Each structure stands twice: as structure tokens, then as C-alpha cells.
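Study this one:
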Amino acid sequence: MAPGTGPGPGTGGAAVRVLVAEDQKAVRAGLVLILRSAPDIEVVGEAGDGEAAVRMARELRPDLVLMDVQMPVMDGVEATRRVVAEGLADVLVLTTFDLDAYVFGALRAGAAGFLLKNTEARDLIEAVRTVARGEGLIAPAVTRRLIAEFAAPRPGRPARGGARAGAAPDPGVLAPLTRREREVLSCLGEGLSNAEVAVRLDMAEATVKTHVSRVLGKLGLRSRVQAAVLARELGV
């Protein structure tokens, strides 16, 4: 959990503190308006470029940064990498599917979730709540499409993953996982939420969250999305 993160919505905790990073003023204003309509979400700052987003994340320590990928001075991918590396907040990336390089870069940078820029207001609010709960995999249709896009090798494009760019991941990385943890990883690869994993594997949701944390720790991953892509790449 990033510094400043409270118990989150649905647990009787404080409101989710959000920093909005978007260079287009009209779009940013719309996002802020939507988020402020939710009683359990507090917009603590606005940034017009990636550099400002990182600086403000350091100063404000929000729970979550809503990050556009295409911004001046510093793009959202680099900003995401810095925010995540410093443990400042979770990052929810605003994206479109015609920007493959940006999306994949943000995934590798440790983004906790991805959201289409034309999403409905209610879905934006729910996505923020979902990431704040530690779910990471938001909007199943979006996430599964992302996983399918970046996990499956195509002619002329090398498989992604592993220790270096373009290298296929080594199945040996899964050796530290228990049988149950592998089952959880497989569910993540399908884009399932904690609640869905709990039903699938017949275990308490709190236990699922513990297993997910252990999987990420053992595999050296920063987010559930990264784990999901790895699962698909390895055919778990």
C-alpha cells in the first residue's frame, strides 16, 4: 500500500485521495468533476504534465494517480515508472488501444490498472474504487483485451516479458510458487477479480488477497496486471 493510503472505500475508511494528471484542460476538468461527484473520492491535485505529476505525487502522497499517457515534458509512462518506483501511489492509466507502445510501457512501469479515456463516468469512479481496494485488474473486458494483446506473440513481433526486452519469460520463474499460488496466478491470467478468484478456488477473499501479494513478491512483480500477462505468456 502506498504511503498515505487508508483502508479505502467500503471498509469504513477515509476517502480515496486522487491526483489527476492530464494535459488537456477540458478533459482534466471533466475527470475532476466526475470524481468529485463521488462522496468517497477526494481530488487532492491536478497536473498538466508528467513531471508535475511526479512532483505533486511526492508532495501530496495521494492514494492513486489517474495518469494520461500522452503528456508534454514527461510522458505518462516515465511518470508512472517514477511514481511506482518511489512507492508514492498506485497508478491508474488512461489509455486508448491504438497506442500499444504506451500501454505496454505503462504496464512494465508498474501501473495498477488501465482505463479507456472514453469510459462512462460511473465506470471511472468504480475503477478508482477498485484500484484503491488493491484489485488492480479493472474493467474485465478492458483488462482481458490488454492481456490478450500483449501476452500473445505475433508474426514479426517477439514475445514480451522476461528479464530483458523481447525475451520470452523463463518458466523457471514459477518454481518458488506453491500449487495454490499457481492456481491464483492462473486466475489472474484470466482477468478475474479477487471475488471471482475466491469463488473459483473456493476460498475466502481475504485469503485470495494474501496469495496475490505472495505471488507478486515471489515473482518480483509490481502489479496484478504484470502477473496476468506473465501467466498468459507462460500458459499457466
Notes: Residues 1-12, 154-166 have pLDDT under 50 and may be disordered. The radius of gyration is 17 Å.
